Amino acid sequence: MPHPQLDRSQLKFRPLADRANKLRIERDHVAPGTPSGPMPAESAALVAESAARIRAARAAGAPVMLTFGAHAIKNGLGPVLIDLMERGWIQHLATNGAGIIHDWEFAFLGQSSEDVRANVARGEFGMWQETGFHLNLALALGAHDGLGYGESVGRMIQTEQHHIPSREQLLAEIAKAGDSAHAAEKAAAAADLLPLLEKFDLTPGRMSLAHPFRKYSVQAAAYRLGIPFTSHPMFGHDIIYEHPMNCGAVIGRAAQRDFLAFAANVAKLEVGGVYMSVGSAVMSPMVFEKSMSMAQNLALQAGGKLDKHFILVVDLAPSRWDWSKGEPPMESPEYYLRYCKSFSRMGGTMRYLSADNRDFLLALSAALA
């Protein structure tokens, strides 16, 4: 017998504009060219080494990948990331579900970051109509159109619209399910989307959605520039799962595409590519190690091996261990720095920098100027 489930249709959602927020993007953003805070000489040298590695990677045609936690967006660093993309230094960005949400809320409202403690106590945390409705709808439409998670949201922001297909179009796609494997996959995506459109009585055609602060959106810039911006969510971790527009099959469809797009670029690191993990203690190392294993599997089959890549891990926690010597013993506290330990097992050259993400990205941007 199935276990009982909570009925999200009974939840009360409020307009996003009613929410008190801690951050305002016009006030709190960081402009490219802003000086970084002071760094120890050893840290500055590591930033310089990373910049040199990035230059060499681009000269060799290898990708530079940047994976970051949501705080890089919350700290107002969107314009710095956009500048790095526009100057050609970054070929892939990746974040978690929260990074997607903060970037969208900044673009749509100009504000983000609610008071979690107070709003949970009031039963209001995450209960914001526009965030839940529009992000989930963008994902459902994107998954139907063959897009990944970050690309779906980036398209919505950049084009400032949803394009709603008709009920007849979706039923026709579903009816073709038996024609081929491709038709079956398209039919499944249509079947995910159709009940959502009917549940919310959405009219076919263009649904305009202004994003007055779009220039601050990293996702929109990546979509405009044709650069992969992938999201690697965990189910139930983000506020959009509270909304009845949310569909698990849609999340899986879009996130799987992003995972495989991420892995495809990891496989290209073999010619001296650079991977930077900034402020992501769990998602980045976990997704990278599976991607690297698949990429290594393919490389070995082709008679090669991935060992020329450079990995830079940036986080706040200090580490006294020299990771070039391998893993520390289990009795050492550094052994439990999961992000360092995981990346030290990934081959190539790995470095660790203890720094604030704002200082690091500003210093790196200056070093690449």
Describe the structure.
By secondary structure, the chain is an alpha/beta fold. The protein has a single domain (11-160, 209-367), classed as Rossmann fold (3-Layer(aba) Sandwich), CATH 3.40.50. 47% of the residues lie in helices and 11% in strands. The strands form 3 sheets. A 6-stranded parallel sheet has the order 7-3-2-8-9-10, sandwiched between helices. The protein has a two-stranded antiparallel sheet with strand order 1-4. The longest helix is centred in the N-terminal third of the chain and has 19 residues, at 41-59. It is globular and about 60 Å long. The N and C termini lie far apart (62 Å). 45% of the residues are buried. The model has no long low-confidence stretch (mean pLDDT 96).
Fill in the keyword field for this structure:
369 residues; alpha/beta; Rossmann fold; 6-stranded parallel beta sheet; two-stranded antiparallel ribbon; 10 strands; 47% helix; 11% strand; globular
- The first-to-last residue Cα distance is 62 Å
Architecture, CATH level 2?
A: 3-Layer(aba) Sandwich
**Helix percentage:** 40-55%
CATH class descriptor: Alpha Beta
**In the CATH hierarchy, what is the superfamily?**
putative lor/sdh protein like domains
Overall number of domains: 1
Structural category: alpha/beta
Low-confidence stretches: none
Strand content is 5-15%
Reported for the largest beta sheet, the result is:
6 strands, parallel
Short description:
This protein is of the alpha/beta class.
How do the strands and helices of this protein lay out in sequence?
Layout: E1 23-24, H1 25-28, H2 41-59, E2 64-68, H3 71-74, H4 78-86, E3 92-95, H5 97-109, E4 111-112, H6 116-121, H7 129-144, H8 149-159, E5 161-164, H9 167-175, H10 181-199, E6 205-208, H11 218-225, E7 229-231, H12 248-266, E8 274-278, H13 283-301, E9 310-315, H14 338-344, E10 349-354, H15 357-367
Parallel strand pairs: 2-3, 2-8, 3-7, 8-9, 9-10
Antiparallel strand pairs: 1-4, 5-6
Helix pairs in contact: 2-15, 4-11, 5-8, 7-8, 7-10, 7-12, 8-11, 9-10, 12-13, 13-14
